Structure formats: C-alpha cells, structure tokens
From TrEMBL:
Note: In eukaryotes there are cytoplasmic, mitochondrial and chloroplastic isozymes.
Listed name of the protein: Aspartate aminotransferase
Superkingdom as given in the UniProt entry: Eukaryota
Subunit structure: Homodimer.
Family listed: Belongs to the class-I pyridoxal-phosphate-dependent aminotransferase family.
UniProt cofactor(s): pyridoxal 5'-phosphate
Residues annotated as domain Aminotransferase class I/classII large: 29-396
Lineage of producing organism: Eukaryota, Viridiplantae, Streptophyta, Embryophyta, Tracheophyta
Gene Ontology CC terms: mitochondrion
Catalytic activity: L-aspartate + 2-oxoglutarate = oxaloacetate + L-glutamate
Length: 401
C-alpha cells in the first residue's frame, strides 16, 4: 500500500489543460488558441535571430564558465533590465534607489515579490483586477497575502470599467497593494488610456496604495518598448515607491529559459540596499540562485547597440503580425455577416482577444471545429495565421448564429 494512497487527483491547470486536450485531438485541422505563445505565419514557435546570434557568442566565448550566479543573479542583466522598464535616464536608477533581482521569468518575479511583501510589508492585502491571469490569485495566496479584486472589465462595452475601478481602489484600505498589468492586460486585451492611468496614479498615491506592476508583454502591445513602459514610468516619475515584475518570455521568445526580473523602487538608496538584503533571504531557501544561460542571452542583447536594435525590429514584427491577425479576423467576421459588434477585436491590445464568446459557444467550437481556447472565450491572436483565420471565423459565425 502506498503511503500516498489517499491523495486525491488535482484538477488540470485551466490554461495548460487546453493544450492537453488539443494534443489528444486527432483532427488534422485542429487549432490551439489557448496558450499565450507566439507562432509564425506557418504556426511554428519562433526563436529570434538575435537570440540565436547571442547564443552563438556565448557558446564560442571560452572564458564563460558554469559557476553559480550570485543569489540575485547576473549583475549586468539586472542593471539592463531596470533600464529597459524604467528608461535609460530614469532618476530612480541614477539615484541608486532601485534594487533588481533576477528571477525565474515573470511568475518567479511575482512570487519573490509577493513573498517579500508578505514578510516585510505592513499591509498584507493585494487587489488584483477582475478578471486577471489565472495564476495571480494563486501566487499571492500561497505567498501569504490576502487577495481581493477590483472591477476592471465591463462585458457590456467589452472595454474598461473605469468607474468601477476607481470606486474599488477608493474604498481599498490605505497601504493596500494593487496589482497592475503594465500593458496588454491578460486575458481582456483592455488597457487604460494614458489619461486614465494618470487618474489611477493620482488616486493610488493619494491613498498610499502600493503599485505592483506585472510587465509580461513590454513591446508586444504597441511594438514599442518605450511606449509600453509608459504607465510604469509615470508611477516612478512621481518619486513614489513600487514593484515591477518583468518577463522576457514573450518579448524575447525565451519562454522555457525562464528569464525575468523583480525590481523594487524605493525612496532612498539606503532603503533599497536593505530591501535587497532581505530579497536574498527570500530567494536563498527557495532556489539558491537563478539559472545563467537565459540571463546571459538577455544581457548580451541589451548591452550591444546593434543587437538591441535588431531585437526591436524582430519584436515589432511579432507585434505587427498580431495586429494584422486582429484586422483579418475582424474583416472575416464582417464578410460573413456574423451577428454582433466585433470591433473589440481590433480595439483590444496585445496577445489576446477576449471574444465575448461564452462557455457553451467555446465548447461548441471545440467539439465541431476542433478549435481550442480557454473557456472564458479568450483566444491567442499569436496562434492565428492568414490560413487559419477563415476556419476560426467560420467557427465563431456558427457559434454566434
Ligand atoms: N503575467 C501575465 C499577465 C502573464 O500573462 C504571464 C504569462 O502568461 C506571466 C505573468 C508570466 O509568464 P512567465 O512566468 O512565463 O514569464
């Protein structure tokens, strides 16, 4: 008899479970729009040319060794990551009041930040948008924070519920942490305008709410790294404190390398260095130190002007392809006369479209058309191509009529 005999089977992860179901489907026309990973026009995963180039340099450099990194990771990587999100001329960086630690992609950065806050911050309450990425409530709960939601998406307009957002943040207790998607909100594709961000910033600062930015799509929303970082930079520019979790999974296509960074912007250099000393105590018993390869790729690219430029061109091409898929899908639905207003497909931003299709319609499309997506009706635009848009449009048309 197994000592684990009484263990109950856990449910499949709702997002990764879509891929499990997809893999089991023998249909030759099956389409996976569940997972948020970029695909080429041919439906293949993409390794950026600049990443291949950086890897070659790393492999050919005999002086590179496989020693352990420090607890907080690669120094160059951390410095360059902070500059990428906060801007090259950020006063907070120049004043040495930012601490940045290399973590295991966006998820690990969120987790280390959450763990630090649960141990050292006076308010253990975090507000996350409704809806949000499914892993957010789990990451913060398991770290020991209590999770509440603020209104974000309005199903009626398929846009931002700005009034609801302001009301909910207004009634949050002073000091509460607020999780903000830096850009390309997942799963809705709905972002506040810059004007709305200004109001959110004002409200949060007046109430002493602590911003925790999740930046998983910098450059993927607009195609511009600087434009997508604008909301974060706005909060840093006022001199206030905040946290930011960065991921290089999407914008450098380094998904499985697990490269990311957590930055904490503090009031003074002295506070930042004490915060960093405590971050080390969080990280050491979790995984000792982060992996070296992915961070070396990122640092190699960010350090070199020519490679950096090459990256921005490749990044823009990915963003542009996604934007063009939005237009093609919208046009295809219009051509079919599919009932309903589908303009949100071209208005939404980033990797995902929140179609507004309900659970039954999603189940119908999977059963009849072998199209896989999460049951909330979210589709990954990056998984579409000119060839598959008509299939999806046919399926949506059938589900909506
Ligand atoms: N945050 C959001 C909103 C995401 O959508 C994702 C990935 O899907 C992540 C964070 C973290 O991803 P990773 O841990 O692969 O960097």
């Amino acid at each position: 008899d197994s000592v684990f005999g009484n263990i109950v089977r856990a449910p499949e992860d709702p997002i990764l479970g879509v891929t499990v179901a997809y893999n089991k489907d023998p249909s030759p026309t099956k389409l996976n729009l569940g997972v948020g990973a970029y695909r080429t026009e041919e439906g293949k995963p993409l390794v950026l040319n600049v990443v291949r180039r950086a890897e070659q340099l790393i492999v050919n450099d005999r002086s590179r060794v496989k020693e352990y990194l420090p607890i907080i990771g690669l120094t160059d990587f951390n410095k360059l990551s902070a500059k990428l999100i906060f801007g090259t001329d950020s006063p907070a960086i120049q004043e040495n009041r930012v601490t940045t630690v290399q973590c295991l992609s966006g998820t690990g950065s969120l987790r280390v930040g959450a763990e630090f806050l649960a141990r050292h911050y006076h308010q253990r309450l975090i507000y996350i948008p409704q809806p949000t990425w499914g892993n957010h409530p789990k990451i913060f709960t398991v770290a020991g924070l209590s999770v509440k939601t603020y209104r974000y998406y309005d199903p009626k307009t398929r846009g931002l519920n700005f009034q609801g957002l302001l009301e909910d943040l207004s009634s949050a207790p002073s000091g509460a942490i607020v999780l903000l998607h830096a850009c390309a909100h997942n799963p809705t594709g709905v972002d506040p305008t810059i004007e709305q961000w200004k109001q959110i910033r004002q409200l949060m600062r007046s109430k002493g709410l602590l911003p925790f930015f999740d930046s998983a799509y910098q450059g993927f929303a607009s195609g511009s790294l600087d434009a997508d970082a604008q909301p974060v930079r706005m909060f840093v520019a006022d001199g206030g404190e905040c946290l930011a979790a960065q991921s290089y999974a999407k914008n450098m296509g380094l998904y499985g390398e697990r490269v990311g960074a957590l930055s904490i912007v503090c009031k003074t250099e002295d506070v930042a260095s004490r915060v960093e000393s405590q971050l080390k105590l969080v990280i050491r018993p979790m995984y000792s130190s982060p992996p070296i390869h992915g961070a070396s790729i990122v640092a190699t690219i960010l350090k070199d002007k020519d490679m950096y430029n090459e990256w921005t061109v490749e990044l823009k091409a990915m963003a542009d392809r996604i934007i063009s898929m939005r237009q093609q899908l919208f046009d295809a639905l219009r051509a079919r006369g599919t009932p309903g207003d589908w303009s949100h497909i071209i208005k939404q931003i980033g990797m995902f479209t929140f179609t507004g299709l309900n659970t039954e319609q999603v189940a119908f499309m999977t059963k009849e058309y072998h199209i896989y997506m999460t049951s909330d009706g979210r589709i990954s635009m990056a998984g579409l191509s000119s060839r598959t848009v008509p299939l999806l449009a046919d399926a949506i048309h059938a589900a909506a009529t």
